[in-house]
Specification:
Layout lengths: L1 E5 L4 E4 L4 E6 L12 E5 L14 E6 L4 E6 L8 E6 L14 E7 L4
Parallel strand pairs: 2-8
Antiparallel strand pairs: 1-3, 3-6, 4-7, 5-6, 7-8
């Protein structure tokens, strides 16, 4: 299960260039991450490119048991983002991750 995240649940004023870090209580198998990490803006508006799900790069630090999600472009300002980790993510022992959701809001433009 997840034991820590940065940003934290319902955090506001998150910088659009944030790198998301999620720490787990056991070792995960990075080969199981594909299609199991879902991200999207809450309130998606079909056809509006500024609401398209952000493109990311996911990396796993085995020593720290930490998933790092880097956004390939800055996030849209003043938007709520939802990150979901699905049960298809497996530990190195083969057990499924308890599904987990994080919501946070990006900072407004200055």
């Amino acid at each position: 299960e997840v034991i820590f995240s940065a940003p934290t649940q319902d955090e506001t004023d998150v910088e659009p260039t944030v790198t998301l870090r999620i720490q787990f209580n056991r070792d995960l198998d990075p080969a199981t991450f594909k299609d199991q990490v879902r991200l999207g803006y809450v309130g998606f508006v079909p056809g509006d490119p500024s609401w398209a799900p952000p493109s990311v790069t996911v990396r796993y630090d085995e020593g720290r048991r930490t998933m790092e999600i880097r956004f390939n472009t800055p996030l849209e300002p003043d938007r709520k983002l939802q990150v979901r980790l699905l049960e298809g993510i497996k530990g190195t022992d083969g057990q499924a991750l308890v599904p987990w959701t994080l919501n946070f809001t990006t900072a407004s433009r200055q």
